[in-house]
What does this fold into?
Amino acid sequence: MTTMFSGASNLAEGVDRAFIFIFAVSFIFTIGIVALIIYILVHFSRKKNKNPQQFHGNTKLEIIWTVIPLILVLIMFYFGWAGFAPMRKVPADAMPIKAIGRMWAWSFDYGNGKVSKDLVVPLNRNVKLDLFSEDVNHGLFIPAFRVKEDVIPGYNNYLWFQPISKGTFDIFCTEYCGLAHSGMTAKVIVVDSLEFNKWLADLKASGPGLEHPGLAIIKANACLTCHSLDGSKIIGPSFKGLWGSKRIVITAQGEKEMEGNAEYIKRSIQEPNADIVKGFNKGLMQSYKDLIKGEDLDKIIDYFKTAGEQKK
Amino acid sequence: MSTTDHNAHSEHSEYIDSDTGKMGMWLFLFTELFLFGGLFIVYAVMRSKYGEDFHHAALELNAFIGATNTVVLLVSSMTVAMSLTAIQKKQKNLAIGLIFFTILLAGVFLVNKYFEYGHKFALNLYPGSDVMRNLPHGEIMFFGLYFLMTGLHLFHVVVGGILLTIIMLKIKSGRINEEHFLLHENGALYWHLVDLIWIFLFPLLYLIT
Amino acid sequence: MNNQTPTAPLNYLNHKTGLWSWLSSTDHKRIGLLYFYCIVTFFLSAAVLGLLMKIEKVAPGETIMTAQTYNAMFTLHGIIMIFIVVIPGLAAVFGNIMLPIMIGAKDVAFPKLNLFSFYLFLGGACIALYSQFAHGHSPDTGWTFYVPYSAEASSNVVIALTAAFTLGFASILTGLNFIVTIHTMRAPGMTWFRMPLFPWSLYATAWIQLLATPVVGITLLMVIAERTLHVGFFDPKLGGDPVLYQHLFWIYSHPAVYVMILPAMGVVTEIFPTFSQKPVFGYVPIVFSSLAIALVGYFVWGHHMFTSGMSYESRWFFSLLTFLVAIPSAIKVFNWLSTMYGGSVDLQPPLLYAISFIFLFTIGGFTGLTLGSVATDIQVHNTDFVVAHFHYIIFGGMGFGFFAGIHYWFPKIYGRMYNIRWANIGWGILFTGFNLTYFPMFIMGIQGMPRRYFDYDPKFQLGQTISTIGAVILFTGLITMISNLIYHSKKGAIAPANPWHGVTLEWQIPSPPPHENFDEVPVITRGPYVFDNPHTK
Amino acid sequence: MSNNESHITSYALNFKVLLVLLILTTITILVIKAHLGAFTVAVALTLASIKCAIVLTYFMHLKFESLILRLMVGGVFLLFAIIIVITFIDYYFR
Ligand code: HEA
Ligand code: HEA
Ligand code: CUA
Ligand SMILES: [Cu+2]
It folds into this structure.
C-alpha cells in the first residue's frame, strides 16, 4: 500500500519534507485558532461578560500577524521549491522511455522494439519518461514516486525519477480524459538491474508471439479497453463474432444494415464515427487513421477473418 | 467623488444621473476591453510561436482596405465627438448631420469589409473550408484569429451603428438635448472604443512583418 | 406572497402582490429574493447530484450508475455549483437585498439593468439545464472544459459553454451595477471609510467580476468557434495550444474563487461585531485585505497548472504569488478573532455558522497552501485532496457564510423569526456530516486517489465509505436547516426591527423593509460599528 | 454634478486630434514598410498605444473627467499588461 510516508523514489524526500512543514504549521495554527475560539466563547460569553470592551484595533498586532505568516509562507515556498527543483533537472545518464497515453491505456516504448503496458524499471537507475499523447490530455501519476506530469498532445512534457525500492506501484491517469478515465491505470514494477536487462532483451514477452499478430496490434493500441473479445458490452461493440455478422448501424443517412467485412472494419478504424452500431454512442472513439495503417491494418483484418473462420 | 447627490431613482425618472450613467458605460467598456484582451493574449502567444507563418499569412490581407478602414474609423470618431460638441452648443441640426455622417462612415466600413471578406471567400479561405484546413498550422491560426477578431469587431461596428441611429432619432425628437445628452455621450464612448480596438487590430493583422 | 397580518404596515413584500409584480419588479430586494429562490433550487438539485456521486462511490465498481452518467453528473454538479450557485450566490442575493440599504440608498444605480441581469442569469441557468436534456448526451467534460477533450467530445458541450457564457455576462452586469452604486449612491456623510465592510467586500468582488469574467467569455467563445468552425486555437491537431486554454480559463477562474469567498467574508465580518456588541477590530486592515485579495488574486492563476508542462520559471513564480495571496486571508482571520475577543459574545445561530466558517475556511485555506507549494501540489494535484480543499473552502466557506447570512438577515428579510433551537440542531448535524464527508478525502488524496474517478482501487474503500456516510448525514442536516427556514418564513413569530441589536443601517429600518427602504434619506455622521449602548441584558 | 457644466471640446481641437491620429497612422505604415526588423512590432505597438492614449484623452474626454475615472482606466490597462507579462513568463522560458 502506498501511504504518504513510503516514498519509493529519490524525489519523495523533498516532497515529504514540504508536506511535513506545511502540515505542522497548519496544525499548530488550527489548534491555536480553535483553542482561542473556545476560550472566547467560554470567557467572553454574554452571561459572563456583560460589558463588551470597545477598542477598534491595534497597529502593532496587525503588523505581527502580517509579518509572521509572511515569514512562514516564504519558508513553505522555499521547501516547496526545493522539493520541486530537482524534478525538472534530468540527470544526463537517465534512461529514456517513451510513455504514450491514449484513451484509455498507457504504453511504454523502450525504443528497442519492446513495448509494454506496464512500466518496468531497474532499481536505483535514473529513468526519464518522455510523455506523448495520441488524443486528449492525460496525466501520468505515480503516487509512490511523488511524480506527476500532464500528457498533453503536441507538447513534449517529461518527468524523471530514480526508484529506490523494489516492488509494484500504481500508475493513475490524473487528467480527465473521458469515459474510462478511471480505468486508465497501469503498474510500475521496480526490479533489479539484472532482471530488468533480461526482461528488456526478451522481445517476445510482449511483442508478437504465439498470438495472432493482428491481435497483438489490437492490444498494443488498447482497443480492448472498450471492445471486449468475449462478447461483453463495454463501451464499444464487442469484437466477438464480428466477421461476417450482420449489424444495424446508424450512418449520416440513417439506419442501415451492414456486414462485418474487411471494408467495414477498415472504415470503423479510420472513421469510427461514420457508422455507429445501434445502441452505442457516437464520438467516443478517435480515428486511428494515422496510428494503424498499411500492413498493420491488414493484419487486424486478417485476425478478425481467422477468428471468424475458426469458429465456423 | 461626491456623496451629496444620490438616490437618483430611475424607476421614476426617465433620465439617469449623468455621472452614474457615464461610470456605468466606462465599466462596460473595461469589460469589452478584456473581452478583446483574451484574443490579444492568444494572438501574442501564437505569434511568438508561429512568427514566420503569421508573416506569410498576413500578406494575403489587403493592407490598402485595412488602411482605408482605419482612416474611416478615425474620421468617424472625430465626427461623433464633434456631434457631441454640437449638441452641447445647442446646434441641433449640425449634431444630427454629424451623427448621420458617422453612421454613413460605419456603412463605408461595412462595405469595405464586405469586399474584404468576399475576396477571402472567393479564395475559399474561411473557417472550416478545406483550403484553410490544409494550410500550415501557423497560417490556420492567423486566419482563425483574423476572422474572430475582425468578426467580433464587425459585430461591434454594427451594434455601434444601431446605437448611433437611435441617438440620431432621439436628437431629432428632442429627447436628447443640451440638458440631457447622457445617451449621446455613452454612444460616442462606445464608438470610440470600436475605433480604439481597430487601432490595435490594424497593425497587428494587416501590417505584420 | 402576502401573509402578513392585515394591520401590518406596507413593506416590499406586500406593497404589490401577484406573480407579475415580482417578475417585473426592479426593486433590489425583490430581485434579490428571486435570485435567492432560484439559487436555492439549483443548489439543492446539484447537491443531490453530489450525494448520488457519493453513493456511487460507496463501493468500487459500478453501484448505482454507469461511468458515462457519473462523468456527466460531476460535470453538471460542478457547472451548477460554480456558475449558477456560488459565483452569483452571495453577491446576487445578499448583495442585492442588503447593499443599497447598508449604504443608505433607495436602490442600486441601474435597477432595470439589475432585473435584466437576473433574466440573463435565469436564461443561462435554463440553457445549462437544457444541455442535459437536449438531443445527444449530456456534457461530460468537467466544469473546466479542458481542450482538446471538450473540443472533441460528442456531448452537448456547445450548449453548456453557451450557458456559462450567458451566466458570465449576468455576473458582469451585476458587478458593474454594484461598483457604480457604491461610487455614486452612498448616503450623505457616508465616506468610503464609514461604509460597512460587507459593501466593501462586494466592491472588491465586483471588480473581479467585471474584469475577469470577459476573459473566460471570449475563451468559451473560442472553444465554441473551435467546435463549430474547426478553427483550432487550442486543438493541437490544427496547431493550437491546449495549455494556452488552461491559462485563459484560469485567468478567470482563479479570481472567480475570490468572487465566491469575498462576499462570504463580508457577511461574517458583519456578524462578529453584532454578536459581540463590539466594534470590528482593524476596520482599515480588513478593507485593504479585501482589495489585496482581489488584486493579487489576478496573478496566481498558474497554480492550477503546476503539472501542465508550464515553464520551470513560471511554476515557482506562481507558487510564490500564491503564498502571498494567503496573507490577506490570514489578516482577516486574526481580525475576526480579535473582534470577538473582549466582547459580550452571544452564541446565536448566525454566529455559530460564522465561527464554523472560520474553522472550515482555515482548514480549506491551509490545504490551499499545500496545493500552492509546487512540490506538494505535484503529489496531490487532481486528486481527492483538491476536491476536499475546495469543498471545505467553498461549501465550508462560502456555503457556511451564506447560511450565516441567511440566519442573520432572515428576520429582516421576512419580518419573522425562525426556531433557534432547530437552527442549532440543524447546524450540529450539518457540521458533523460535513467533516465526515470531506475530511477522509484529504487522506485519500494524499494516498493518490485521483479525482473524477468513477471507479477506484479497493484500498480506498474505507475512506470512501466513511465519506458516503458523511454525505448522508450532511443531507439530513441540510434538510433540517432548510425546513426550519422555509416553515418559519411564513409561520414564524413576528420579528422586531432589530433582533440582534445590530448597528448598521439595515437594522435601523422596519422589518421587512418598506418598498423605498428609507422614509427619509439617512445622514451618516460616524463609522459603521459604534455600539454606544450595548444591549447586553 | 450634472453634465451642464461638463467640458465642451471645441471643433478645432477635435479636428487637430484627428490630424495627429492620421499622421501617426501614416508613420506606422511607413515604418512597417521600411522593415526595421525586430523593432517593427515594438514601434507599431508603441505608435498604436500613443494613438490609443490620444483617443482616450481627447475624443473620450478623459482629460476632463474625475481623477477616479482616470485612475480606473489607467489601472485597467496596467492590469492587462501585467497579465500578458505573467503569461509570457511561461511562453518565453519554454
Ligand atoms: C471559494 C473558493 C476558493 C478559495 C477562497 C480558495 C483559496 C485558496 N486556494 Fe483554492 N481552489 C478552489 C477554490 C478556492 N480556493 C477550487 C474550486 C479549486 C479547484 C478547481 C478545479 O480544479 O476544479 C481550487 C484549487 C486550488 C489549487 C490547485 C490545485 C490543483 O488543481 O492542483 C491551488 C493551488 O495552489 C489552490 C490554492 C489556494 C490558496 C493558497 C488559497 C488561499 O486563498 C487560502 C488562504 C487562506 C488561509 C491560508 C487560511 C486562513 C489563514 C490563517 C488561519 C492564518 C494563518 C496563515 C498562515 C500561517 C499562512 N486552490
Ligand atoms: C458550491 C459548491 C459545491 C457544493 C456545495 C458541493 C457539494 C457537494 N459535492 Fe461537490 N463539487 C463542486 C462544488 C460543490 N460541491 C465542484 C466545483 C466540483 C468539481 C466538478 C468537476 O470535477 O468538474 C465538485 C465535485 C464533487 C465530487 C468529485 C467528483 C469526482 O472528482 O469524482 C464529489 C464526489 O463525491 C462531490 C460531492 C459533493 C457532495 C456530497 C456535496 C454535498 O455537500 C451536498 C450536500 C447536500 C445534500 C447531500 C443534499 C441536500 C438536498 C436537499 C436538502 C434536497 C432535498 C429536497 C428536494 C429533493 C426538493 N462534488
Ligand atoms: Cu487518461 Cu484520464
Ligand atoms: Cu486558484
Remarks:
- The pocket of copper (II) ion (ligand 4) is lined by residues C 254, 257, 303-304 (CB under 6 Å).
